[in-house]
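Course assignment 3, question 2. Fill in each field.
Student: A.L.
Task: Predict the tertiary structure for the chain below.
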Amino acid sequence: MRILTIIVCLAAVGPSAPMGSTKYLPTPDAPVGWRGDGSGRYPGATPPTSWERRKAGNNYATRNILWASPMPNNGVSTPIIVGPRIFVTCEPSDLVCIDKATGRVLWIRSNMACEAVPEVAKTLAPQLAELAKANAEAVEDLNGALAGAATSAPKELNGLRKKREIEKKITDAQVAADKKVFGTNWAQAVFGFAGQTPTSDGKRVCAFFTSGVSVGYDLDGNRKWIQRGEGMGSEHGNFASPLLIGGQLVVWANEMRGYDVETGKMLWTAAAKASNTYGSLFAVRAGAELVAGFQSGYFVRIRDGKRIWGDQAFGDAVSTPIVEGGMILAHQGYPIANDQTKGLKAFKIPTSEGAKPQPAYAFKAEWAETEIPADKKTPFNRGFVASPLYRDGLVYQLTEGGGLLVNDASTGDLIYRKVLPMKPKTEYWNWAGASASPTLAGKQIYLMDNQGTTIVLQPGRVYKELAINMIEDAEGNGQAQNLATPVFEGTRMYYRNPRLLFCIAEK
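Answer field:
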């Protein structure tokens, strides 16, 4: 049976205002989530190009930072913008809502795994009530610290200390009640249990945590539903952001699951076991059909939950595929030197549900041996955590070691390569290097490492650097690791590191 005529990015069907415009609002047909609409492009923005936060004695000197909102805990997920609100997840199970104009935290909602298991939730009801109260107190403490957060060294807040003590007490009680159900993979703790970006259709906001919890809230913080299933993923954890598509929340945890976004009812499950895969879910439109894909190459038809197009068509990788020009651009395995059997490839879209995506051409790398060398101390410098970016017929890729590749999207030919003036930290395996995905905002491209550097680049067939910016944030003897991808709206850039959510705009 032929099911496919044309495949396009779902973002092609959406609101009249372009993403990045202050008039943009997500809708059920064009929700917002990981990398905005999945493309990493914000054409409606008129973004900042220059900012700075530098250590100055015991404090920080700043330029073009409007506010910095303290977060209740660490996190690596990307914020999303829904009208006047910003939503972001924090460890270990928080969905946080921030006022976009001021940076004030409006509410914190914790989603402990036991809450989705009625008999355990009943037993722990007093502790859960205690946590809800602590969240309200933490909001007051965080907002009290907001005014000086951009320029001051971080301080331990009493409200947050209390909140974390209660969270640990609940976590320990869960495990004591049923270790098999509530136990977690130790490796997940390196980057956390709340690394998935939330998603919204403009009416509600949904989130997934690697405790296995999926939740749906209205925009005012009223939880409409909570469900729990498998939460773990690959060897080093699960970082797959969920997908809103066709009225369903789709999550991945060694299987794909579809939940009704209104009620939380699980509609289907599909086997999708990966070995060493860390990318997110992405969406395609197949003729009249909506299809949810997972990074390693599993695809499920939303209408009936049927898996199509074969098993693990792409193989293990970290970066999430993008859909452009009738092709799926996906990494096929981890790159080894200049081995062209690995790396980014353009896959033909199958024309029947039983076919499997086939690679049409590879994106050439051609690094010289002296460029971003991979050695035993930094073995991942040529690997890819960041996802690719498409703009005007070119594809931009950023390696963990700060190497930029620009290729012709239609042929894979290399246009240019450049070792960028940044200093990402790469170590096995708790320092992931340049991990934030390249982002287009207005007419500029933003490239970030994990040590606070952002390079603003003019798109095109030659390298043209417009600015280099720095956000310093001392963490012990080093720099807080910057892993999240920025988002843009109007004249503002919003970016979160482990401790702070920054609002950046030229004054």
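Instructor remarks: Helices lie at 118-123, 125-144, 158-177, 179-182. The mean pLDDT is 92.
Grade: pending
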